[in-house]
Known about the structure:
The protein is of the alpha+beta class.
Amino acid sequence: MGEDDGFGPLPGFAEAPAHFESASQIARVITEPWVRHHLYCPNCGEAAFQPFANNRPVADLYCANCREEFELKSQKARFGAKIVDGAYRTMRERITARNNPNLMLMNYDREGGPIDVMVVPKHFFVPEIIEERKPLAATARRAGWVGCNILIGQVPEAGRISLVRARRLLPKAEVLETWRRTLFLRETAIEARGWLVEVMKAVEAIGRPEFTLADVYAAEAALQARFPGNNNVRPKIRQQLQVLRDRGFLKFVGRGRYRLRQ
């Protein structure tokens, strides 16, 4: 993969070994090698993906250059607002760990290869987007086991970074810049990060790059419902906008007006 790659045709998948029969096995053996051979790490830009040993609880791949970890999920159908994941307790523990993996989502078809590949950086993982599923029934093989869903629909657009879109590899410089725009979230305690993520979503929902403080106040009721223990939502909104401004995500243009930095 060259430095100038971008919006070029993508190679398809190699054939899965004949002895693999289940859809999940086939998906794993065709998608993981494809990522290793054809994609670069969105954190450092190096094509240095390596596989973890099988049966690691959460992560599948890591970058040998910067050590970022990734969980790869791939399927033929497009991903919806919820993504089924592993054990709830394991996931809740991992989102507070330094080596929490980034989530890579691949939508593909067997004949043509990847259609879309998106990465959700790990700093967008807050407790609110991990949903506990009901325990497995007493008659199940793993009776009582509790899984989780990742509520991907609650992640802001800034946290959904495309590497491949409509079978085209996006320019590396664009991907790396999009990734770097939100790295400041990693320096924020996970308890405070939820507010920043929710205010990002409120800003994006306005639907235009320049907006007013009053536009963001329109999300006051939703934010109050999201954080029922906070009775000073408007001051909290102003505080979060100031943080986003100070970290370069927003630009203050005066008189209560802000602009999203592109």
